[in-house]
Amino acid sequence: MPRISTFVMAGGKGERIYPLTKDRTKPAVPFGGIYRIIDFTLSNCINSGIRKIHVLTQYKSLSLSRHIRMGWNIFDAELDEFIDFIPAQQWISEQWYQGTADCIYQNLDTVEVENPDFILILAGDHIYKMDYMKMLEFHISKGADATVGIIEVEKEKSPNLGVAELGADGRIKAFAEKPQHPITIPGNPDHIYASMGIYVFSRKVLEAELKEDSGRENSSHDFSKDIIPSMLNKRLKIYPFNLKNGDKSGTCYWRDIGNLDAYYEANMDLIRVTPVFNMYDKDWSIRTYQEHFPPAKTVFSQSQEEGGRRGMALDSIVSSGCIISGGLVQRSVLSPNVRVNSFAEVYDSVIMEGVNIGRYAKIKGAIIDKDVNIPQETVIGFDPEEDKKKYVISDKGIVIIPKGTVIK
C-alpha cells in the first residue's frame, strides 16, 4: 500500500461567515444540529481508511481542538494511528501560516519524518462525502504530479471558487482563482469545473514546488493561486478527479460554506423529505462529539378550550436535550439543549445549542448562535428594517444573532 501523509486545513478565519466565527475557527462552526463542519472531512478520512491525520490550526482553535480531542479519540497509537493538531511551528520562518501552501511548507519536517510517497491535502470547511482512496488510486494510475478534486457547479458561483479548464487529453490545462468570466464546460455553458480544495501530490514534486514558492516575494503561498499555476507553466502532469467518481452515494453533493447564506442554505438542505446529502447513510457514517443530554421531547397538546398550547416540531431536525414546551417549530434545525416555550413560534431557522426561546416569541429566517436567551414576545425576522437596527443581516435577509448575545 502506498504511503500517504494527510493534512487537513483547519486554520481559516472564516471572515465571510462572521459573526459565527467570532469565537471559533470556521471548521469548528456547528452544523446540522449535532456536528461541526470539520466532522465531514474527518469522517471522509475514516470511511476512506485513512487513520493518520494532521489538522493544521491557527485562528481561535480552542473549541476545535476540544471537539476533536473529545469526539475523535478513536485512534490506536499501537497501530500508528493518530490525529495531530499542528499550529504554525515557526521552524522554517518566524511567521504564522501565510497561505495554504505555506501551511505544508512549514511542516516539511513532518513530511520528512513520515517519508510518504504522496501527500493528501484537504479543506476542513466543506460539506460533502468522498472516498479519498479512489482519488489516490486515480492519481497513481495516471502517473500524475498532482491531482485536483473538482465538481461541476453553476457558472455564477465562479467569483468565489477556483475554476479548472480541461484539455482534450483529460489533463488540467488552465486554472483561474475566482474569475469573473470563467471557462465553462464544453457543451454545458452554464456550468464550470470548480476546485474542491482537495489535492493529491507526488511528494518530491510538491516539496520542490513549495521550496521554490517560499522564495517568491510576490507569492500569496496558496495552492490554487500560486502552486497549481506554477506547475501548469512547467507543463507538469495535473489531472482532475471528479467528485462523481469518489462519492459512493452518487449524489455529488458538495457545499463550500463560503458565506452566511451558503451556511444557512446547507442547513436547510438537510430538512427536505429526501435530502440530497444523507446523514442517515449507514455505509458512510458521520462521526462527531456529543454531550450526553436526555432525549428530545415535546409537551402540551391542549385543545383551544384548554388553552391551545401545543408542542410541535414539523419538517425539522430536533437534537437531544431539546424541549418544545407548548411552542411550534417548523422547517428548522435545532442543536442540543434548545428550549422553545409556550406559544413561541420558530420558522425556517437554525438554532444552536443552549438557546432559550421565551413565550410568545416569533422567529423566522434566523441563525441564532449558542447560549442566547430570546425574551418573551420578541419578534425576529418579520420586519427587515427593524432587524437591521439590532442584528447582522445576510445578503439574502437572514438574521444572525451571535453567540451569547443579550437581547433586551
From TrEMBL:
<comment type="function">
    <text>Involved in the biosynthesis of ADP-glucose, a building block required for the elongation reactions to produce glycogen. Catalyzes the reaction between ATP and alpha-D-glucose 1-phosphate (G1P) to produce pyrophosphate and ADP-Glc.</text>
</comment>
<protein>
    <recommendedName>
        <fullName>Glucose-1-phosphate adenylyltransferase</fullName>
        <ecNumber>2.7.7.27</ecNumber>
    </recommendedName>
</protein>
<dbReference type="GO" id="GO:0008878">
    <property type="term" value="F:glucose-1-phosphate adenylyltransferase activity"/>
</dbReference>
<dbReference type="Pfam" id="PF00483">
    <property type="entry name" value="NTP_transferase"/>
</dbReference>
<feature type="binding site">
    <location>
        <position position="195"/>
    </location>
    <ligand>
        <name>alpha-D-glucose 1-phosphate</name>
    </ligand>
</feature>
<dbReference type="InterPro" id="IPR011831">
    <property type="entry name" value="ADP-Glc_PPase"/>
</dbReference>
<keyword id="KW-0321">Glycogen metabolism</keyword>
<dbReference type="GO" id="GO:0005978">
    <property type="term" value="P:glycogen biosynthetic process"/>
</dbReference>
<dbReference type="InterPro" id="IPR023049">
    <property type="entry name" value="GlgC_bac"/>
</dbReference>
<keyword id="KW-0067">ATP-binding</keyword>
<dbReference type="GO" id="GO:0005524">
    <property type="term" value="F:ATP binding"/>
</dbReference>
<dbReference type="InterPro" id="IPR005835">
    <property type="entry name" value="NTP_transferase_dom"/>
</dbReference>
<feature type="site" description="Could play a key role in the communication between the regulatory and the substrate sites">
    <location>
        <position position="96"/>
    </location>
</feature>
<keyword id="KW-0320">Glycogen biosynthesis</keyword>
<feature type="site" description="Could play a key role in the communication between the regulatory and the substrate sites">
    <location>
        <position position="58"/>
    </location>
</feature>
<feature type="domain" description="Glucose-1-phosphate adenylyltransferase/Bifunctional protein GlmU-like C-terminal hexapeptide">
    <location>
        <begin position="294"/>
        <end position="401"/>
    </location>
</feature>
<dbReference type="Pfam" id="PF24894">
    <property type="entry name" value="Hexapep_GlmU"/>
</dbReference>
<keyword id="KW-0119">Carbohydrate metabolism</keyword>
<feature type="binding site">
    <location>
        <position position="97"/>
    </location>
    <ligand>
        <name>alpha-D-glucose 1-phosphate</name>
    </ligand>
</feature>
<comment type="pathway">
    <text>Glycan biosynthesis; glycogen biosynthesis.</text>
</comment>
<dbReference type="InterPro" id="IPR056818">
    <property type="entry name" value="GlmU/GlgC-like_hexapep"/>
</dbReference>
<keyword id="KW-0547">Nucleotide-binding</keyword>
<comment type="similarity">
    <text>Belongs to the bacterial/plant glucose-1-phosphate adenylyltransferase family.</text>
</comment>
<keyword id="KW-0808">Transferase</keyword>
<dbReference type="InterPro" id="IPR029044">
    <property type="entry name" value="Nucleotide-diphossugar_trans"/>
</dbReference>
<dbReference type="InterPro" id="IPR005836">
    <property type="entry name" value="ADP_Glu_pyroP_CS"/>
</dbReference>
<dbReference type="InterPro" id="IPR011004">
    <property type="entry name" value="Trimer_LpxA-like_sf"/>
</dbReference>
<keyword id="KW-0548">Nucleotidyltransferase</keyword>
<comment type="subunit">
    <text>Homotetramer.</text>
</comment>
<feature type="binding site">
    <location>
        <position position="162"/>
    </location>
    <ligand>
        <name>alpha-D-glucose 1-phosphate</name>
    </ligand>
</feature>
<feature type="binding site">
    <location>
        <begin position="177"/>
        <end position="178"/>
    </location>
    <ligand>
        <name>alpha-D-glucose 1-phosphate</name>
    </ligand>
</feature>
<feature type="domain" description="Nucleotidyl transferase">
    <location>
        <begin position="7"/>
        <end position="270"/>
    </location>
</feature>
